[in-house]
Amino acid sequence: MAITEKNIMNRLYLVAGGLLVFAICVVVKLVDIQMIKGEDYKELALNKTERMFTIEPNRGNLYSDDGSLLAASVPKYEIRFDAKTVSEVNFQDNVAALSDSLGHLFDRPSSYYRQLFRKARANGNRYKLVARNVNYLDYVRIKQFPLFKLGPYKGGFIETHRVVREYPLGKMAARSIGYERVDENGYYTRVGLDGAFGEQYLRGKEGKRLKQKIAKGQWKPVGLDNIVEPQDGLDVVSTIDINIQDIAHHELLAQLEKYNADHGCVVVMETETGEIKAISNLGRTAEGKYYEKLNYAVGESHEPGSTFKLMSMVVALEDKVIDTSTVIDTEKGRYRIYDRVVKDSKWGGYGKISASHAFEVSSNTAFAKIIHENYKENPEKYVDRLMNMGLHKKLELPILGEGKPVIRYPGDKGWSGISLGWMSHGYEVSLTPIQTLAFYNAIANNGEFVKPRLIKAVREGSKVLKKFDKEVVNPSICSKETIGKVRQLLKNVVEKKHGTGHKLYSKSFSMAGKTGTTQKNYVAKDPDKMAYISSFAGYFPADNPKYSCIVVIHEPDKSVGYYGADVSGPVFKSMAQKIYTISPTVDEVEGKVLNEGELEEKYIRYYAKAQKQYIQVPNVKGMCGMDAVSLLENLGLQVEVRGNGKVKKQSVDQGTNLNQVRKIVLELS
Q1: Which of 307, 305, 296 lies closest to 256 in space, CA to CA?
Q2: Where do the structural domains in the chain lie, given as residue ranges?
Q3: Architecture of domain 53-236 in CATH?
Q4: Could you point out which of 4, 77, 158, 495 has its C-alpha 20 to 30 Å from the C-alpha of 18?
């Protein structure tokens, strides 16, 4: 086609039109960017270079009742260096002295730090790592080192920090002390005291700080100040006594190991106030070791077995269907209810015995007969009495995960004609260890049911913001007459030769309680699968109770032993005696507070007893720290302890004459 002037002009018009359209599009886009979406793009650009970061506050500390730390938030600092902000004169004048100071602090050659700083300077590094996990005191020192003391702009000093939760007792009472953690989705996991009081008291409020993105995806703080300052959490003072906790932990651990049991727990409660002084939960790993896996004491509801006979006895005495002197025929140790048979552990039974004797020997047939025959026409009366004493209700503890008690009512699913007989001795009912203990504590406390308490106060520094006093759930669970009778029965369990706890009796120390041996997996009717729960619940001293306590051990090795008196009872006794050894102002037998003269006499008695047994320094390696300290101090030695746990090393050799030694140092691990 011939190229004409007209064709050329048409093409030029087309090109010009296209350019005009393109120019219009560019102008429209610019207007859109600047006028309409400008703020969005500006924010996007800012987010790529600057971002607001959250500053975690210092979590409040958790203390024992005497002010010892159970959990503490410790800041860990990271020190970095901005080589570009430092002038050449400042760098050359100070780098050697700074390197010497850091080398001395961290026990490294100063040449290491000189090379680090010179390399950072040569490369123009704006965020060079100098030290990680620096504690607060060292951080304060580093801030005053040469060059760094000039600040972030002249000295290149950069610090960031994170807060780490530390637990001075280590793994001991880990589930009860607990923790609070948050995942990437903002979901909180709360365990134990640290979790229970986190949101309300311990957590504090987050702060905000602006940071700038620099090379290699790193973020550097902008300026010296935070945008929003974090607010530290409040401190919580718990009721835990670390000495009693130490005793509970090691006594339970030793017995679990001896009987190769699956798991167990111990709770110690102050009778009058309801303060929990110790709570230990240990479960076995696949390797046969024990650690705080779950809070069994609070969360594990199970059939209590014979410890529930106390509840049945209270009901029967209150309703006056029997008295302690009422005679019951134990039916040669077998009592049939419809198509089921209740059995006594003693083959042939106990013959005709009084109700008090039945309690002391823990006769299943006697209790099944007492409850079934007296309440079968009106089973609601028995269950109503249990419920009136609050046994069907949770304690509403602050620790999450409290197990739900099970007390069935006639007509409920699972209720049958045999229910009364089985409930009477602790089957077809379910309680957690701490719920069972709360009832026993009420008996020890003359009928006043107090709520178990784990917190004493909330503080801000040394200032007490809130105090927690005892909480009375029921001022009287039953009559004083019934209280007096069952307290004597609990005492007889230990003191009478026929009592199931008679092996625990000591002339020099009084205690009262009830043994329990519960069958597990009995529905399977397979002897190989049959397992047991061993328990002992009670209080001490017997006549003037100061503490109540429960010990529950699951699935001890049947070939070694499984009865409550053999497995859990010794833990109770040993703990009780050691607790009173560390509480010398109280008489073990009578429970009364000693005056100055009586207290001095008690110390003399302890000292004389120890001196008769030892004339040389004993070997305490392998003993738990509290036991070793108690023993050595009773020998008149001054004891210094380093660490916690069991004794790994003693500074004075075994066999050294005591009259040659004044002080001994124990290293624990």
Answers
A1: 296
A2: 5-36, 53-236, 242-581, 601-668
A3: Alpha-Beta Complex (3.90)
A4: 4
What pLDDT, in 10s, does the model give residues 41-53? 455 444 557 777 6
Give the model confidence (pLDDT) of 569-588 as tens digits: 999 999 998 887 766 444 43
Check for a shared fold between 53-236 and 242-581: no
Please say whether the beta carbons of 58 and 98 come within 8 A: no
Tell me which amino acid residue 206 is: E
In order of 198, 221, 437, the CA distances from 452 in angstroms are 19, 48, 9
366: Cβ contacts below 8 Å, ≥ 6 apart: 328, 330, 350, 353, 355, 358
CATH class of 601-668: alpha beta
Structure tokens at 279: 């709570």
| 450/237 Cα distance (integer angstroms) | 19
Tens digit of each residue's pLDDT (9 = 90 or more) over 259-281: 999 999 999 999 999 999 999 99
> Model pTM?
0.75
Higher-pLDDT residue of 223, 122: 122
Amino acid sitting at position 36: I
Report the topology of domain 242-581. Answer: Beta-lactamase (3.40.710)
Q: Please report how many Cα atoms fall inside a 13 Å half-sphere around the Cα of residue 627, on the Cβ side.
A: 19
208 touches 55 (CB < 8 A): yes
Strand partners, 63: 69, 237
419: enclosing H helix or E strand: helix 419-423
Helix axes of 596-613 and 625-634: crossing angle, nearest 10 degrees? 100
